[in-house]
Amino acid sequence: MTRKIIAFLFAVALTGAACFSQTTQTAVLEDFKPSTLNQPGQEYPQVNSQGYARFRIKAPQADSVKVSLGLGGRGGTKLTKGADGFWTGTTEGPMDEGFHYYHLTIDGGTFNDPGALNFYGSVRWESGIEIPAHDQDFYALKDVPHGNVQQILFPSKSTNTSRRAFVYTPPGYEKDKSKKYPVLYLQHGWGEDETAWSNQGHANLIMDNLIAEGKSKPFLIVMTYGMTNEVKWGRIKEFKIEPFQTVLVDELIPYVDANFRTLADRSNRAMAGLSMGGMETRTITVNKPDVFGYYSLLSGGVYSPDELKDKSKAKLIFLSCGSKEKPDGVRNAVSALKEAGYNAVSYVSENTAHEFLTWRRSLHELAPLLFR
């Protein structure tokens, strides 16, 4: 792991923390509706058509309530107490489209919003809010054939336990018992776990829709914990890839190939990851070029031609990020890879930062390019 890559990941993470604008020039429209990620029957939090979010929390004995939004909860919206004991407040500006983590700070204590569903991020279960995106149709739940996401428990001698993974099998997998499929190993970011790509990322719905439209080949997606969260934020340079590389390459992949109908070779195996999962992907694909044929880093650094020299040539290298991250770095890296003869593709998600809409869009662009 190089200092350059570590510095890049810190920079994009800090960019993602600024998930809402500080401008107050636009008049706020009073067309607020409950967030789609609210608990059943809960009216708050709410979102309006401009992307502002409004919160209402009952805490009659509290002296201060703040909503902290973004990666790690930096930034925030102070709420105002009413005579009825409810605290209410609206973000100072519209938030980026897509999914955001948040939590409450009440008199210095950290709490989740009882009105919202919870999602694992920032090394804890955080509240989640969804700002409707203008292009949300590609990850919408539609009347199309659906695949399945199932939990598996696979033996891991290296960690002396059974470990968990989730496997997406595409529509039709259960019917044709003779058909075998390629596999994408898809990694989450720091602070998250193996539930992130299904819950926050809607990876299964993205794939269902692409397959129904004939835009992507059907393939399996395997999502497991990247063993990243034992490393505290700010000390990521101490992360060692070897334990997870052993779990993935020597334990999980053989288990999946033995228990699912896979095309078990390099040409039909891909690895991708977001943020720190991208850093894991980069390191493992460079270390094990005979295992994966397709490489993808989503807001997770870049490859250089020199580090891939004399390795088995990748069939595809896909690099992406949000336009509010460092898009020039991604584009320049892809240009250099192309000049060196690699099949490299860049993608930049417009008007997003280090956040899940960037990664949803990235998966939507990546999937049709895999296993062609």
Automatic annotation (TrEMBL):
InterPro entries membership: AB_hydrolase_fold, Esterase-like, Ig-like_fold, Ig_E-set, Mycobacterial_A85_antigen
Gene3D superfamilies (UniProt xref) = alpha/beta hydrolase, Immunoglobulins
Asked if the record carries the keyword Signal, the reply is yes
The source's domain of life comes to Bacteria
Keyword field? Signal
Show which residues constitute the signal peptide.
1-26
Name of the protein this chain belongs to: Esterase
- Specify the species: Spirosoma aureum
